[in-house]
Design brief:
The protein is α/β, with parallel strands linked by helices and 102 residues long. Helix content is 42%, strand content 32%. Strand 1 and strand 2 form a beta hairpin. It is globular, with a radius of gyration of 12 Å. The relative contact order is 0.19. InterPro entries: Anti-sigma_ant (IPR003658), MlaB-like_STAS (IPR058548), STAS_dom (IPR002645), STAS_dom_sf (IPR036513).
Length: 102
């Protein structure tokens, strides 16, 4: 399992695009990428485009929730965008689809 990512910036929006599985084995990559994005972003939005994420476990959910809280503390709106069917199901089951998804 692996997790790759790219970061796109346009105006006041930073988009983080992870690709692959977000699991206990790969979650540290996502944690560090999101921590960096929040730390270096001044206001505006951070979108996490989940369209290429093929798996999401509870460790990934924890990182996403923590990143959203850290962003909110800095006045940044961090939300998920375009989750695929598997990720959307995980978010729905955990009742986070209405909290994390734009």
């Amino acid at each position: 399992m692996s997790l790759e990512y790219r970061i796109e910036r346009q105006g006041d929006t930073t988009t983080v695009v992870p690709s692959g599985d977000v699991s206990l084995e790969t979650v540290d990559v996502l944690r560090e990428v999101l921590r960096n994005a929040v730390a270096t972003h001044d206001g505006g939005k951070i979108d996490v485009d989940m369209g290429a994420v093929t798996f999401l476990d509870s460790s990934g959910i924890g990182v996403l929730v923590a990143a959203q809280r850290a962003a909110a503390a800095r006045g940044i709106d961090l939300m998920l965008r375009d989750p695929g069917p598997i990720v959307r199901m995980v978010l729905e089951v955990s009742h986070l689809d209405t909290v994390l998804v734009r």
